[in-house]
Predict the 3D structure of the following.
Amino acid sequence: MRELASKNQLRLAYFRWAVVTVPLILLLGFASGRAAPSGDENAWFMALDKPAIMPPGWAFPVAWSILYILMGLALAIVINARGSRKRRPALAVFIVQLLLNLAWTPVFFGMHQVVAALVIIAALIVCVAWTILLFWQVRRTAGMLLLPYLVWVCFAFVLLYQLHQRNPDAQSLVPSRTTDQIEIR
């Protein structure tokens, strides 16, 4: 005879996953942000002409911390949904969107590649929307937890597009960290 888990057992299993997924997503996001100086710590970014809709510098780490926590909670819900046939595809698309997310900061802040960052964020929007759809099919709550992430990434795309419009020569403003600066006299 097969026994079903009680609600308390299911909550405990979810909690165990969340204890792993939330710090892991936060750590990965933090590591990506530290791969290249970002925000106010980045001389190149500070030299850009910013649009009026640019939030203050402190808003980005706060927003991303909240979004990474929500992502970790949604991931834990889907991992814990063992009976769902859509679980594996949902997790695969989640990983793809996470890799795109983590790649964006080094491409934009480290390499100063605004157009490449626009392409990455456009692909990220598609993957986040797809992840929401798949997570929603596994557990509605998991999909709902990612809705603020989609809104923020769409806002980030608009912001980045405006930055590109205002700074068409952005790549040449300040040499990237990977450029050797040698002056021969």
The radius of gyration is 19 Å.
